[in-house]
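Field reference: sequence -> structure
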Amino acid sequence: MPKSTKTTGKEAVAQKTSPKTQKGKPKIFYFFGGGKAEGQGHMKDLLGGKGAGLAEMTNIKIPVPAGFTITTEACHMYYDNNMSMPEWCEKDMKKYMEKIEAQMGTKFGYPSNPLLVSVRSGAKFSMPGMMDTVLNLGLNDETLDGFIEKTGDSRFGYDNYRRFISMFGNVVLGIDKDVFEQVIHKKKKEKKIRHDSSLQVKDLQDIVAKFKKIIIRRTGESFPEDPYVQLAMSRDAVFRSWNNPRAISYRRLNNIPSNLGTGVNIQAMVYGNMGQTSGTGVGFTRNPANGEKEFYGEYLINAQGEDVVAGIRTPSPISQLESEMSGVFKELQTITTRLEKHYRDVQDFEFTIQDGKLYMLQTRSGKRTVQAALKIATDMVHEGLISTEEAVMRIEATQLDHLLHPRLDPKGTYKVVASGLAASPGAGSGAAVFTSEDAVALAANGKKCILVRQETNPDDIEGMHAAVGILTSRGGMTSHAAVVARGMGRPCVAGCETVRVSEKKKQLQVGRLIIKEGETITINGSTGDVITGKVATIDPVLSGEFSELMEWADEARKLGIRTNADTPVDAKQALAFGAEGIGLCRTEHMFFSEERLHIVQSMIIAESIEKRQEALDKLLPFQKDDFKKILDAMQGYPVTIRTLDPPLHEFLPHRDEIEAKIKKLDKSSENYENKLEEFNKIISRIDELKEMNPMLGHRGCRLGIVYPEITEMQVRAIMEAACELTKSGKKVYPEIMIPLVGHINEFKNQKEVAQRIALETTNRYKVNVDYKIGTMIEIPRAVITADEIATEAQFFSFGTNDLTQMAMGFSRDDAGKFLRYYVKKGILPKDPFVTLDIEGVGQLVRMGFDKGRSTNPELKVGICGEHGGDPESIEFCHEVGLDYVSCSPFRVPIARLVAAQAVLSRKETLAKPSGPYRRKPVVKAKPKTKSKAKPKAKKKVDVAPKTKAKAAPKTKVTSVERADKKATVKKAAAKKEGPKTKK
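Structure field:
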């Protein structure tokens, strides 16, 4: 048998302290069965989600086949012990197998009445299909006879035997599963049959013999007949699957820590494929696609559980089970309703019916779309199951982005060529691709694609992530494609049986219609439609549940949420999503329109102050109009406007572009000499402004210091816009931000210019404007001298993009060449331009905040880098005590929710509900005025509700609250508190 490759680096699980037994050995086995379990539901860290669920179900007397869980600590032990388990582990495991035998009345490895078990993975967080499972373990040539005698069905026995050998060969021995499938395919072709169920006993006997020969040929060893050898090898294979490529990819894509390890669940087999009185299925206590309170799921008669999730057969809706097995259906409804109330969350469950008897194999919190999550959370508050705080904590903030994606324009015309199951909502258009590798390659080139497969499997994880949508011809609402797509927020149409997919030919066929690789198709995951060509989309409609949950979040959070916006359209969009101001308005973005760029260029190439001023005077009306519209759009919220930041050469054309224009000049033209001179001046200026390292060159406040007339024009435009709006009776709060300050004298220089122009302008208009002058902290020296700068500045805004570049020595434009490799290899935990480097750059933010507040207690402090929309970075900003974060408009809802969760995650306990709308006050004790009667039907609204108007946007955090937060932060630092566990 080939040796396993040892996993190294951070993907290898870390050693942790295990609970000790009386003999001093770590307790790594936890039994469940007969209504009692050694573990409990809260022990997910130790038992994994599946093991904790099995233990809890057993303790509350749910019918669960007996078994035991091998802990995640054993997984650490396996990796620490050179990919093997100690001898005492094998002896103890045998004792626990004997407990299953006693409970089930069977014997493991005995020819008469043999015990067969399943070996399944189970990490703390659900990773559907990413790790490995072995079923029917314990079968060999001897126990097979006893199994056939017990069931009275030779075909059933041999069918399970061939399933076990192929699964063991693939999962444990590493043989490609297609090798086994080819044997079955060849046999069906030989017998001229289509379905596996048509194979007879002799056919299956021949298949089993061929499977065993494959194992000898591929590994050099015989298929192991000893059941305990099978068990140990399968257990170790499940441990190894924690670090298989698809599991690593899934953890990376879903931010699951790599050092958790997986538990292993050994459980007595029950069979859903014992005839028409047996079956298997999966389901949810509520609809995971839309959140409706309905019994939802699918089942197959005469099948094993893997047949449902693998998508090999299209199952029936669970409601149909009532007509086939009414007693089992009612029992299943009763049990799952009880489980939902017990866990106070939607349950994703698996069940098997063996000869009319129901067994529950798993329960866990069900994965759901964000639309469903919002409805379920708000409904459960109304039902009195959970508090509003718990509802806020139930929503995964990053999933809110899925709400904001376009949907098909109902007014558009398009041709539906096929329909399947609406497995994951949303719509997407792209080139049809038929392999995950092609999807990844196309996405890398910036092109959109739809991944088309017969059915997906865990190996397709990267391709599913790269695609904008997934289409499968097989499988149901709980197939791998459906579950993973919902978790990713990708639209998915599953079980589209009229579509014939050929991966070999790279095409799909519907009737006579053939769609080849690269041709554009559209899928509508909300209806299940498959459409030819690209279809127009419209913005999504946000539900009333979204608005309600955001109100609860706003009650809890302390951080203010602003937006980065440079246009009135962006400002209005952000305001609709709940923004409380603009934290960064980049004025340079206003200079690139066609009507302005030539004026900017003439200002840059001007040879005198007079010529430069002439160009600036032409720009002034444009700038004023921009600022006036943005200030007006924000309806009295503060607007932070950054003066010109990029180096001037960015506004000039490339040298070769001008040289090409010179070559095209008509030398016979009267204007030839004038044009040539003009072009030569531009070339000369381009050469003069060329910089070896523009990021550290003549930009930011350095421009305003050398060319003060630029700062004067921009401040004049800001203040004139503010004055005119003020005179019209509107509230405006402009904040002038000086960029790239590294020395207090730089700030003083630009502050003097800004104050002088502001005073001159307000005197001329004869109005008072409440404005502020502050700086962007993005240079490490500014952090170190922040206490000094704060004596002059009224606010700080951390520009974490540039601060990260300068602190880490990474160019954001060039770091992409190696950062992906750094993250993949564990050199860095995450891309520092996406998630703030808390241990490094984050400490600069903390230092700058503390130093600034030490000399200016009223200093307003926020961040405006891209990190302002990243959940982990937002949590850090809350911990530090910043006043606000600023992010792009479409990330405002995410920031609002994370800011609330940052508060609630630090509460020791959540409020226990005692009725609808009962909640524990979070920030301020506010009396509830809402009716406790049944909730009204939710209305559909186009956008989130606007935040209540304020008389003036004063700092949200009071001085007392600020002091409390500061004391909390210092206390935490003193205790060297580790990273938070997110609920």
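Note: The radius of gyration is 33 Å.
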